[in-house]
Specification:
four-stranded antiparallel beta sheet; 0% helix; elongated
């Protein structure tokens, strides 16, 4: 079977799908996701470019989640879908499902690093809001390439000075989708 690590198993019709940290299944190349047909292990198309940590099924489609940024040879940030039988390729989800937004550290004292990933090149707007929805700061506003991006955010309101302790929200708009994360400022 697959080795060295399998993190998720999921029945899918008459197959068993495995996801994990492996590049071979049953002696054949398989990039982090493979399926068992009852007698042999097989790769799922081109697979993904790094670990699969979870497998799920919704409306007869298999989903893989993990630490990958490519699936089926194209961009797919942390989640991918297989539209047919496991023998079909794992592919990326539509672009609107491929926004990723994280803060580290959070809670925040003075500064945090904002990380976000885009599946396609396009217009991006990253803003900071207070609990009333008022925009306090714009961290990004323009055209950006697909891939991972970093922004440093200092706890500062351009017109009012240092932000006080409390809850704030970062809002990422790209490709017709929106992702929001809560940020807690502590002093």
């Amino acid at each position: 079977g697959p080795s060295p690590h399998v993190y998720a198993l999921r029945p899918c019709g008459m197959y068993l799908v495995a996801g994990g940290w492996f590049t071979e299944a049953g002696g054949s190349p398989a990039n982090y996701v493979a399926y068992w047909d009852g007698s042999d292990w097989h790769a799922m198309g081109l697979g993904v470019d790094y670990q699969v940590k979870a497998l799920g099924q919704f409306e007869n489609k298999l989903y893989a989640g993990g630490f990958f940024t490519q699936a089926g040879g194209g961009p797919s940030f942390y989640i991918a879908r297989c539209d047919g039988a496991p023998s079909s390729s794992v592919g990326r989800l539509p672009s609107e499902s491929c926004l990723s937004l994280t803060l580290d550290p959070n809670p925040i004292q003075e500064r945090t690093t904002v990380r976000y990933s885009l599946s396609d090149r396009g217009r991006v707007r990253l803003t900071v809001h207070d609990v009333t929805g008022r925009r306090l700061h714009t961290l990004a506003d323009g055209i950006e390439c697909a891939g991972s991006h970093l922004r440093s955010w200092r706890m500062w309101d351009a017109s009012r000075g240092p932000l006080g302790p409390g809850v704030y929200f970062l809002r990422l708009e790209a490709g017709g989708s929106v992702s929001t994360r809560k940020a807690t400022v502590v002093r």
